[in-house]
Amino acid sequence: MTSLNNFKMDADRNVDEPVIGGAPNLDDMLGNLQEDMNKQGIKTKQKGVCEACTKPIVGQVITALGHTWHPEHFMCSHCNQELGTMNFFERDGKPYCEQDYHHLFSPRCGYCQGPILDKCISALDQTWHPEHFFCSDCGRQFGDEGFHEKDDAAFCKDCYFEQFAPKCGGCNTPITENYISSLNLQWHPNCFVCKECKQPFNDGAFFEHEGFPYCETHYHALRGSLCAGCHKAISGRCITAMFRKFHPEHFVCSFCLKQLNKGTFKEQGEKPYCHECFDRLFG
User: Fold this and answer.
1) Predicted confidence (pLDDT) per residue in 257-268, tens digit
2) Using CA atoms, how far apart are residues 120 and 251, in angstroms rounded to an integer?
3) Residue 209 in 3-state DSSP?
4) How many Å apart are CA 90 and CA 31, to the nearest integer?
């Protein structure tokens, strides 16, 4: 029996020693596998060349964007997440996961600044989620009547006219359609009437008093220039008597209707009488 102590290693003998190294590269493994299978006579059908690594594809294959890919190489161009069978989006020939695509390229809402994934409203040179495009004042969403713009903000019809439309000089409510401009104010057509009797100015003529329009009768009534006899305006000569004014031809005896002169009448019950009628009636 040969003693273990007498056993000697042949110095010239070649012995394979383990090689210490890093983890094998997946691409190298795929390449070596293909090579080994070919050496053993196992024929494999090539399914294309991977767009990412430019190596042949033997097993599973993903076809997308006009190219073929190893499944592990078909990744989001931004976050490198494997896309596999996930939904993906294309931009400039590159694939993106849904989250990164919307984060990078989707339009932003002018209100919340979040990406818009579905329906979109374009207005005021911005894009909006439909539920975020509403009146800047009352918060109501816009219906079929649309919106009004002021200082890069959107307003519903009611809020816009309430804040920015001129106010009527008669009723002080917003003017939204036709109006009359007069006395340095704007008026609803049906509000531009005599301040006293509320009658419209059919002939277009009116008189102004303290910023308001009046018909001729009520204007002169305010100014004290209305004839006490005929209740019409006095534009020429007048007679002042009994704290009132009269057209000369309308200052007459209340009984016989003869024209009177200022100094030739007598008064009874705030009515003027000639001397003859006064004596006959009250003498």
Assistant:
1) 999 976 788 999
2) 80
3) strand
4) 29
